[in-house]
Amino acid sequence: MFERFTKDARAVVLGAVEHAERLDADVVGEEHLLLALLDREGSRASFALASLGVTRRRESVERSLAETRRRGGLSAADMDALAGIGIDVAEVVSRVECAHGVGALAGDRRPKGTRGWGRRTGRRPFSRGAKGTLEQSLRIALGRRDRSIGDEHLLLALTARPGVTAEVLADHGATYAAVERVLGGGGEAKAG
User: Which GO terms describe its molecular function (predicted)?
Assistant: First the structure.
């Protein structure tokens, strides 16, 4: 599948691996793909993110992703569902962190001195969600009758797949429909 990726899309995938390494994550996740997309300049996805105002709110995006990791990857919908049955996620996180330290629920860090998945090959594996995003980007490209997979297809895939990354993007103004409007050149999307 990677032979169908444009130079920009390949740079995003490599950038995601670098973000995972910098954050010492065992796997490359969807959030790493988003961070790598935010690093890009002069590409279709970077144009869409800038047009929607996401690029200038990068710090807020990073805080949202970090907070999500801190609470074990639970989305707002997950938290609402748990609140509906009387579970206060903030209280659970607080108690776990009091007992085990800040970030104990993050789940993407391995204990010192242990070997994570994929260490024999020297490469970090992609999470199920990240693999699904790559597959979704192919489906989006095929659906749009594009010959190759660009970074814009990766961005669209991140907004299309339910979960934390799509939620963070939507909270910052980048829904699937908004990104499609910007990429389509209809001029209907407003920056901001």
Answer: ATP binding; peptidase activity
